[in-house]
DNA sequence: GAGTGGTCTAGACCACGCA
DNA sequence: GCGTGGTCTAGACCACTCA
């Protein structure tokens, strides 16, 4: 552990909850090898003393790690580090950018803009985003790479009717989420549907799968005020990305 | 609301947490139409007074409903009932039997046993279950119906080497989970992977999809002691079941 | 029986939204 | 500015595991 700093109430520009800070510290310790797969973490009481936080806070941190499939909690026994292989593994209920996930698993992420358009919303898009048909949107088509291998093709639609042109222009350059953050539309929640898809019409370029089999993550992102800010269809190429879900009672 | 009974600490044979009880009561109220889609639930403080529980408990209840995509929480504003259509919608991170989910959505569930075998575990099964190759297992193939329409085909494997024959015999008759519960192997956690699958070899009977497209939920169930108790491959027929994931930061 | 995680409480204060 | 949800605490007691 040996962190100790960085963790403090006081809310000194604290946009990150204490629980998350503890979770990140524990995650780093695990990744660094302080706790080997199969070994036991310190007890919740110990951790709470180490970080000087309440046990409730420690528990929220551990729940986060658990939902990422990183640790396993056994009642009456302890919390144990999971063993996981080298594939890209993402906890499906963690909302984070795909690039971020790829990076954290030790691969080099890259996105490639294939098309970009400012146009009226289709009927489907309008319904999902809760706007009128014909509302102006920015539409993007991107390929997402991990170590130069296509992991997913993503189609994103962002309502832009009332957005200053200087912001509209920035979509397609750099991280979509950082632009959204700047204009105050940072997604905090997404409701996603999962569908299997087979199509030879999805994707492009030399790595386009022959008779492509994809896992479609069909999701609408909402900001903290409940406004729909992005409608995304991300087609994950089967076999290159491991989506994990921890299911509990 | 107007429940009031059933909710009490005291732990009179309470295997169900207070939070879950409150969640169930709220869920029932929503399903009954007490709160229409889009309308606001009472505030957390109000609910905690109504049910005579702490606000923390109310919050765990609301988190459950949120993860099922049933309500939407907006900071500073309130908790609102989501609008969802007539399709079967399951929160992917809730561990519950499929039949249970189907029933709760207002359909009539039915499972049909197609095959059943007691045999040695394959290499793959042994690895996933953490047992030796050749370990005796019960293997079942079942079709799961909602209102007489096939929703999924499920392949379940249960380690049975040391299980009394009288229990082994019961798998395939009635609910798999109730048998597991009786013998003390009730799953409390499952780690699932999601994959798209296309195959004409999955399924049987007149409703077998032509060129079947499925969402495969590939999962190992664990009991509270961390023992692997079931290895399931469930192939959901695309279009008949809506898997929802709430993703949060 | 000692030690671990699971549940619950009452109370405090912060951040946000909305009028 | 009031009411809403968000975070955090200290302490209590229960249920479970394991030696």
Strand and helix map with partners:
The structure is a homodimer of 249-residue chains.
Chain A: H1 18-32, H2 44-51, H3 55-67, E1 71-74, E2 78-81, E3 89-91, H4 98-104, E4 109-120, H5 123-129, E5 136-146, E6 149-159, H6 165-168, H7 176-182, E7 187-198, E8 213-223, E9 228-237, E10 242-248
Parallel strand pairs in A: 3-10
Antiparallel strand pairs in A: 1-2, 4-5, 5-6, 6-9, 7-8, 8-9
Helix pairs in contact in A: 1-3, 2-3
Chain A binds a DNA duplex (19 and 19 nucleotides) through residues 9, 11, 17-19, 43-45, 53-57, 59-60, 62, 73-79, 224-225.
Can you give a write-up of this model?
2 copies of one chain form a homodimer. With 249 residues, the first copy, chain A, is an alpha+beta fold. The first copy, chain A, folds into 2 domains: 18-81, Winged helix-like DNA-binding domain superfamily/Winged helix DNA-binding domain (Arc Repressor Mutant, subunit A, Orthogonal Bundle), CATH 1.10.10.10; 88-244, Chorismate lyase (3-Layer(aba) Sandwich). Helices cover 24% and strands 34% of the residues of chain A. Chain A is built from 7 helices and 10 strands. In chain A, α1 (18-32) packs across α3 (55-67) and α2 (44-51) crosses α3. The longest helix of chain A has 15 residues, at 18-32. The two termini of chain A are 31 Å apart. At the A-B interface, β7, β8 and β10 of A face β7, β8 and β10 of B. β7 (187-198) of chain A pairs antiparallel with β10 (242-248) of chain B. Chain A binds a DNA duplex (19 and 19 nucleotides) through α3.
């Amino acid at each position: 552990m040996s962190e100790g700093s960085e963790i403090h109430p006081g809310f000194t520009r604290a946009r990150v909850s204490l629980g998350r800070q503890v979770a990140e510290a524990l995650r780093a310790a695990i990744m660094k090898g302080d706790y080997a797969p199969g070994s036991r973490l310190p007890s919740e009481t110990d951790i709470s003393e180490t970080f000087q936080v309440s046990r409730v806070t420690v528990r929220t941190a551990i729940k986060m790690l658990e939902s990422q499939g990183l640790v396993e909690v056994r009642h009456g026994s302890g919390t144990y580090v999971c063993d996981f292989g080298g594939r890209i593994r993402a906890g499906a209920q963690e909302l984070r950018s795909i690039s971020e996930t790829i990076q954290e698993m030790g691969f080099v992420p890259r996105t490639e803009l294939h098309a970009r358009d400012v146009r009226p919303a289709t009927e489907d898009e309008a319904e999902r985003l809760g706007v009128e048909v014909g509302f102006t949107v920015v539409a993007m088509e991107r390929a997402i790479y991990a170590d130069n291998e296509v992991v997913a093709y993503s189609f994103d639609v962002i309502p832009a009717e009332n957005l200053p042109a200087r912001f509209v222009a920035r979509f397609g350059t750099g991280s979509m989420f950082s632009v959204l953050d700047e204009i105050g539309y940072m997604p905090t929640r997404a409701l996603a549907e999962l569908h299997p898809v087979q199509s030879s019409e999805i994707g492009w370029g030399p790595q386009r799968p022959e008779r492509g089999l994809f896992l479609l993550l069909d999701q609408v992102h909402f900001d903290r005020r409940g406004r729909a800010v992005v409608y995304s269809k991300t087609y994950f190429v089967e076999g290159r990305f491991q989506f994990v879900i921890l299911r509990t009672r």
